[in-house]
Amino acid sequence: MGARGWAGIALAVLLCVLFLSLCVRIVPGGAPEAPPPEPSAPVSDNASLLIPVEGVAIDALTDTFTQSRAQGARPHDAIDIMAARGAAVLAAADGRIEKLFWSGEGGRTIYERSPDGRRIYYYAHLEGYAPGLREGQTVRRGQRIAIVGSTGNADPSAPHLHFAVHVAQPGEPWHGGRPVNPYPLLTGGR
């Protein structure tokens, strides 16, 4: 084989190594998961949930829970947290990833269930999930789980996180429960 043939093989090997180093994370079996990052979004002293978008202050939140959507056809039952596309979405509380789901309205979504099974946290219009995020995974308050986007029926020029909280019975389906206003849970009733 000539020098040109060997150069082509060497280039192919180099590209494969580069691809693997960028796309594959090798973790030894049984290795503990890395500890979650410290929460970096502000939390009110009385709030029970972390603001689930990194860098968004309490004063930047607007209560949109009772606003109507779809020309008055349905209530919002959530709040929209405006943020730059690609901003980190953080777990608002400890929990377990119940469902990673795509829907026409919510786009790329996450359903997280609280450890006691009584709350479901819904994150929608996500641009992408955090690397390695999977159903059944335990997450900690403040852990990066996704990035802000405008998937689903969100306006592409107004990226935001649609964040909802549902009170559920343990064992109730991931899409069940009764909506409660997340605004006071994030702001401590301000």
TrEMBL record:
Residues 75-182 form the M23ase beta-sheet core domain. InterPro entries: Cell_wall_metabolism_enzyme (IPR050570), Dup_hybrid_motif (IPR011055), M23ase_b-sheet_dom (IPR016047). One of its GO terms (biological process) is proteolysis. GO terms for molecular function: metal ion binding; metalloendopeptidase activity. Its cofactor is Zn(2+). It comes from the Bacteria. Pfam families: Peptidase_M23. Keywords: Hydrolase, Metal-binding, Metalloprotease, Protease, Zinc. PANTHER family: CELL DIVISION PROTEIN YTFB, PEPTIDASE-RELATED. This is M23ase beta-sheet core domain-containing protein. It comes from Sphingobium baderi LL03.
